[in-house]
Prior knowledge:
The protein is of the alpha+beta class. The protein contains two helices and five strands; from the N terminus they run αββαβββ. 32% of the residues lie in helices and 25% in strands. A five-stranded antiparallel sheet has the order 2-1-5-4-3.
Amino acid sequence: QRPAVRSGARRRAPPAMSSEVEETLRRIQSHRGVKGVLIVSAAGVPIRSDLDPDETTTYAALLSQLAAKASSVVRTLDETDELTFFRIRSKKHEIMVAPDPEYLLIVVQRPSES
Length: 114
C-alpha cells in the first residue's frame, strides 16, 4: 500500500512507508493544535502532506531552502556540528523542522491550541 500524497506532488512516494513511520505520523497528527505534517525531500519536493496542495508546495519550497541555509550556518560556525532541529514561532503558527540528509519532517501547529 502506497501512502497517499495529497499535496499534488508530481514525484511518487516510496512504495511503502514502514509501519513505524506511519505510526509516528499518526501520533504527531493526533496532537492538539497540529495543523499539518509534511515529509519533503531535501530538494523541496513534497512526498507526503495532510495540508492542501497550495500550502504544501509553499511550506515545502520555503522550509527546504531555510533548512539548507540553517544547516550551512551551523556548519560555518562549527564544521564538526550539524543541524538537528529548528523551530519558528509566529503569532499564528509554530513550525518545527527535523532535517535529515534526504528528507525533512515538518510539523505546523497553532501554538494557542497546543
